[in-house]
Amino acid sequence: MTESELPLGGSRVQRRLAAAAIELFYRQGALATPVRQITEACALTPGALYNHFGSKDELLYVLVRDIHLRLEAEVTAAQEAVAGDPVAELSAIVGAYVTRHADNQGTARVANREYPLLTGAWYDEVVAIRRRLRDRLTDVLAAGNRKDLFRLVGGDDRAAVLTAIPILDMCVHISEWFHERRPLGAEDLRARYVDLALRMAGTRTD
């Protein structure tokens, strides 16, 4: 587990607990992982978790929230670096998604598989981040369509939403199958997924 995959901030012990939880949630799911197993992986007693998190559910929430926030920050930075050009923005957003989900499979799977277990305000907060990410791409597609850079099927703002969803879905699912031992490396993967996204948007080449 690399530093870039761990939650944002927190004490040394919190980050140890977080790293152990990510590994266990990745392998067997949060529901099947008892608190004792997380703390034993850190050579701590079960009570140690409750000194740093209110519950296992709160630990899961912090992990999932921070993984989503890290993705949002990376996507935002990538898009802002090429702001004003919808084709470049679409390429940047997809590139950021592919990199995050190919290079950090453990956290990507935990975030996307386990977030439905959250409840109440915790669930709402994570869903809001996911919607912001979708809306960011939707806005890029709509802007490109208005500038006649894209040919979205349907041609209206609804078409932008219906194009954004499958683009993001295909990027997210990279974490379920990709590893560097396959013939396709991460750099080639990004290039191919960017090309796929541009085709899905109906990028004009004339």
Structure description:
- The protein is mainly alpha-helical and 206 residues long.
- It has one domain (3-200): Tetracycline Repressor, domain 2.
- 67% of the residues lie in helices and 0% in strands.
- Helix 5 packs across helix 6.
- The termini are far apart.
How does the SSE layout of this entry go?
Blueprint: H1 12-28, H2 35-41, H3 47-50, H4 56-80, H5 86-103, H6 105-114, H7 120-146, H8 157-172, H9 186-200
Helix pairs in contact: 1-2, 1-6, 4-5, 4-6, 4-7, 5-6, 5-7, 5-8, 5-9, 7-8, 8-9
CATH class: Mainly Alpha
Mean pLDDT comes to: 90
Write out the CATH superfamily name: Tetracycline Repressor, domain 2
Model regions low in confidence, pLDDT < 50 over at least 5 residues: none
Relative strand content: under 5%
**Helix count, per DSSP?**
9
How many distinct beta strands?
0
Under CATH, the topology is which?
Tetracycline Repressor, domain 2
Silhouette:
elongated
Task: Determine the fraction of residues in helical runs and give it as a percent range.
Answer: 55-70%
| SSE sequence, one letter per element | HHHHHHHHH
Described by strand count, sense and barrel closure, the largest sheet is: none
CATH architecture: Orthogonal Bundle
User: How much is the radius of gyration in Å?
Assistant: 19 Å
Which structural category do the helix and sheet elements fall into?
mainly alpha
Features:
about 210 residues; mainly alpha; Tetracycline Repressor, domain 2; about 0% strand; elongated
